[in-house]
Each structure stands twice: as C-alpha cells, then as structure tokens.
C-alpha cells in the first residue's frame, strides 16, 4: 500500500476521535453511514454488508473496478470493495487517525497494492494516481455534507470518472428548501455542529440534483433510505447506551454527547430531514 | 380510513387525546403527568426543546395512525394546540 503522510487536515474533530469509540457502537466494519435493512430481523452488521453490496450495484462495480471513495471513514467501503470485488480503490479522508486505522486493516487483510488512502480534503487533495481514462466509480457516503463548494465537488468527481462511469452520493438532506430556511439555525442542528461535526451543510435533494446536472451528470436514480437510516441510528443508539461505560472510559462524557446527537438525528427524519441515495452517470 | 385499533375515530374526544398526549409528553420530558396541563407550552417549558416536541408529535401520529400537516407540526405549542389538531386530523381522515 502506498499512501500520503497522515498529516492532520483541519477536519471536524468528530472523525478524529479515538477509533476505539466507534468500534464500540458501529458494526464490525465500522461503517458510519446508513445500512440497508431487508427484513425486521436484519441486524446492524447484516444491514451494512447489504448496503455495501447495494452501493456496488449502483456503481455497477465489476471485478477489478477502479474506484474512488471520498470521505472513506474507517475504510469499510474501501476494504470491502477491494476484498469482495477485487477492486483497486483510492480512499480520501481528512482525518489522520482514520488513515492510520485503515493502514493497519489493509495489512491485516492482505490487501496491500489494491488500496491507497489519501489524507486531505477532496476539494484540493492531489489524486496522483488517477487510472488511465478515469475511475469506474466515485462514491460519497455522507461526506458531501461537509464540503462547502458543492458545485466544485461534483465537477471534480465527474472529471475523475471515465466516460460511462458512475457517481454515487448518499446524504442526509433537509426535506425541502423551506425546512432548511426554518431549521438550519435551530438549536438541535447547532448542537450537532458544535459538539459533533463542525462544519456541515444539509442541503435539500433538489440542490444535490441541480449541482449534479450543472456538473454535466445524467441522473440514474434516487432512492429514499430514510427508514433505513432511522433503524441504523436506533441500533447505534442502543449500542451507545449499552456500552456507555466503555465509551466514557476512553473519553469521559462522550456517551451522553453521542446519545444526544443520535436522538436529535432520529427525531428529525421525515419531519425536517430525509436520507437519499443519488446515482449519476457520466454520459449523454 | 385507517385508524389504529385502539382508537375508533368517531369515539375519540379531545379529552381522550389530551390524556394520551399528557402521558406521552410526561414520558418524553421525564416529569409527572400531574405537572402537565392543557396550556403547558412544549416549546418553552422546563426540559422541553424542539427535538422533544418532534418526538412527541411522532409518537402521537403513530398512536392514532395519522399524519399532521407541517404547519401544525411546527407551529403547535401547547398540549391543547396539539390535541386540537390531532382531533381535526382524526375527523377529516
């Protein structure tokens, strides 16, 4: 595996917390985004594996595909695509600790050579090893919310794709422009910004679609994943409560902060917020 | 129309709804039911916030199998306000 030096980019502090905290409430893959629940009995771990296969399907990932995952977190998608689909994957994250964690997992899983992690912001990170002709797929799971310049991010994603390549974005969105205007400065969201994420801009789906169109993408599909994210967060919340002592032992007070964040997030689904998956194609 | 089994719409009174709502609000805020009255303001009373109001609305919608209008969800403030819009929703559903 090759990599850039994991210099701490000025990301929000949340993702640079001790990775062990996330190991205590996320699934074994440490995927920090919505799962996909096929049945009432589906577990969190099953939902996240199902979601990764779903993303692969939306991106039409074939054996050996060349992928770019923007906002790769603890590497769940990067490692999954490399191991399950023999993909060549580049992951980007501003959080240095995530870089270190993924590097360790790549070695454990014997995926060296197929995974490359870059530390920095997608908007300006140097992606030195773009495959000839471009990537087959670019994914952003819950990361475009942290990018201030939506149009630039979409244009850059399209520019990195081959002709016919696909772009998958799943994001939490205000339900519409009016809801955004009314709630963007509400106390719930202010807590989430100040205590958890730092900068973030939840746009309505219409903004994402407009930016995709303006960047030159064709829109393939939009899926509503709101109910799946509600269940995902219910599962995370239950884990936070069950393992609060262990979480607080790593960082005192963190369990209550996380629980409050997750309660706010789940209260809003359907009323103020939605979670959508948008799939686009670089094609006429 | 669809209503949950517990609540045949024709027989649900504002008083019934107020009692249900009081139970939900008390559980949400962690306070005794006796401390809540019809004019308790869910947006300003001790321990309340917009998130708890939304959770209360979500529970009352599930309880009666209704969907309130956005304007009602985001503008109703007192227990009596919410009981009234729930009653309206049941009558018109």
Shape of chain B: globular
- For the termini of chain B, the CA-CA separation is 6 Å
Helicity of chain A, in percent? 40-55%
Largest sheet of chain A: 7 strands, mixed
CATH topology of chain B: Non-ribosomal Peptide Synthetase Peptidyl Carrier Protein, Chain A
The CATH class of chain B: Mainly Alpha
- Estimate nothing, just give the exact number of structural domains of chain A: 1
Please indicate the percent range of residues of chain A in DSSP E strands (runs of 2 or more): 15-25%
Structural features, described:
The complex is a heterodimer of chains A (284) and B (93). By secondary structure, chain A is an alpha/beta fold. In chain A, 44% of the residues lie in helices and 19% in strands. In chain A, strand 2, helix 4 and strand 3 form a beta-alpha-beta unit. The N terminus of chain A is likely disordered. Chain B is mainly alpha-helical and 93 residues long. The interface between A and B is small, with 11 and 10 residues.
A few lines on this structure:
Chain A is an alpha/beta fold and 284 residues long. Chain A is built from eleven helices and seven strands.
Spell out the key features of this protein.
heterodimer; A: 284 residues; alpha/beta; Rossmann fold; seven-stranded mixed sheet; 11 helices; 7 strands; globular; disordered N terminus; B: 93 residues; mainly alpha; Non-ribosomal Peptide Synthetase Peptidyl Carrier Protein, Chain A; 4 helices; 0% strand
Topology of this protein?
The complex is a heterodimer of chains A (284) and B (93).
Chain A lengths: L18 H7 L18 H15 L7 E5 L5 H9 L3 E6 L2 H14 L5 E5 L15 E7 L8 H11 E14 L2 H7 L3 H11 L7 H11 L2 E7 L1 H17 L1 H7 L3 H15 L4 E9 L3
Parallel strand pairs in A: 1-2, 1-4, 2-3, 4-5
Antiparallel strand pairs in A: 5-7, 6-7
Chain B lengths: L13 H16 L20 H15 L5 H6 L3 H14 L1
């Amino acid at each position: 595996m090759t990599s850039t030096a994991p210099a701490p980019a000025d990301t929000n502090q949340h993702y640079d917390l001790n990775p062990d905290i996330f190991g205590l409430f996320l699934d074994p893959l440490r995927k920090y985004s919505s799962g996909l629940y096929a049945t009432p009995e589906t577990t969190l771990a099953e939902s996240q594996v199902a979601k990764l296969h779903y993303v692969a399907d939306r991106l039409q990932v074939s054996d050996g595909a060349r992928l770019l995952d923007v906002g790769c977190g603890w590497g769940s998608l990067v490692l999954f695509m490399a191991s399950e689909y023999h993909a060549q994957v580049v992951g980007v994250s501003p959080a240095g600790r995530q870089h270190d964690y993924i590097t360790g997992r790549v070695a454990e899983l014997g995926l060296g050579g197929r995974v490359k992690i870059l530390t920095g912001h997608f908007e300006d990170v140097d992606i030195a090893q773009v495959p000839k002709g471009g990537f087959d797929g670019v994914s952003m799971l819950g990361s475009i919310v942290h990018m201030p310049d939506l149009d630039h991010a979409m244009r850059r994603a399209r520019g990195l794709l081959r002709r016919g390549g696909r772009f998958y974005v799943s994001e939490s969105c205000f339900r519409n422009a009016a809801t955004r205007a009314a709630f963007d400065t509400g106390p719930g969201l202010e807590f989430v910004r100040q205590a958890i994420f730092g900068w973030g801009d939840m746009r309505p789906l219409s903004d994402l679609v407009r930016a995709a169109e303006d960047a030159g993408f064709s829109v393939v599909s939009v899926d509503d994943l709101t109910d799946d994210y509600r269940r995902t967060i219910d599962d995370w919340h239950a884990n936070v409560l069950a393992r609060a002592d262990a979480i607080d032992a790593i960082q005192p007070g963190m369990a209550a902060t996380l629980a409050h964040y997750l309660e706010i997030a789940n209260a809003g689904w359907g009323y103020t917020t939605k979670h959508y998956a948008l799939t686009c194609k670089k094609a006429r | 129309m669809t209503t949950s089994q517990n609540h045949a719409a024709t027989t649900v009174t504002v008083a019934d709804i107020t009692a249900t709502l009081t139970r939900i609000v008390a559980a949400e805020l962690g306070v005794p039911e006796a401390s809540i009255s019809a004019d308790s303001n869910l947006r300003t009373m001790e321990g309340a916030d917009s998130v708890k109001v939304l959770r209360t609305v979500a529970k009352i919608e599930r309880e009666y199998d209704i969907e309130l209008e956005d304007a009602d969800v985001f503008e109703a403030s007192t227990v009596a306000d919410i009981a009234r819009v729930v009653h309206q929703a049941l009558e018109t559903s």
